[in-house]
Design brief:
seven-stranded mixed β-sheet; binds S-adenosylmethionine; Rossmann fold; 7 strands; alpha/beta; 30% helix
Amino acid sequence: MKFELKNILKQISFNTFIPFFYPMMMLPLRSWRRKAIAMLRFQPGDRVIVPGVGSGYDLSYIPRGVSVDGVDISEVMLAIARNRIRHNTKSITLHIMDAENMDFPPNTFDKAILDLFITCVADPQKAFSEIVRVLKPEGEILIYDHLIRVPAWADSFMAGIDLVMKYNFCTVIRSFDEVIKGQPVTVTKEIKGDPLGFIKGFLLRKTA
Ligand SMILES: C[S@@+](CC[C@H](N)C(=O)[O-])C[C@H]1O[C@@H](n2cnc3c(N)ncnc32)[C@H](O)[C@@H]1O
C-alpha cells in the first residue's frame, strides 16, 4: 500500500486504541445497521466492495452467494475482521489498501457498502469518486453514516470538537451533499439509522 502522510494519525489510532472501545460503540447500532444493509437488493453472484471494512461488522449481514472484497488501511482492524470470519464459508477477501486509490478496474462491483467510512476517510470526495469508478452502471451504494448539516449556532462548537477528532477518528461535520456532488449517482431511499436520527442510511444508484 502506498504510504500517505494524511492517513498516518488515523492508521496509528485504528491500529492501537480504537479497536478496544469500538465494539462498545457499535453494539447499540446492530439492528439499525442490519436494516440499512437490507435496503440493498443482493442478487446471487453479485460482487460487493466494502471500503473501510474495519473489524468487519457488516460482513455478517451480507447474504451468502455474493463475493465480498473488504478494504482497509488498518492491519489491526483487518485482523479482527479476519478473526470474525474465520469459521465463515462466505466468499470474503480482505485487502490492506487505501480506498482513495484502489487496485480494482472500473465497473467491477455490483454493490458498495460504506458504513461509518465517509466520515472517517481523509478525502471523502476522492474516496467516493473511486467507489463510483469501480462500481458497475446501475450498481447500488449504501451509505450508513452520521453525515449532517451543522446548524449555524453550533458551527464553532462543532468545529472545535471536529478539530480534535477528524485526524485520528472521524469528523462530526461532514455534509452528505458535498460528498456526492458531481458524481453520477441518484439517491433512491433514505432511512433513520439510530434512535436519534443522527445516523442515516442512504441508498444510491450509479446512473451512468
Ligand atoms: C469508523 S471505522 C468503520 C468500520 C466499519 N465500516 C464499520 O462500520 O464498523 C472506519 C474504518 O475506515 C478505515 N479507513 C480510514 N481511511 C481509510 C482509507 N483511506 N482507506 C481504507 N480504509 C480507511 C479505518 O481504518 C477504519 O477501519
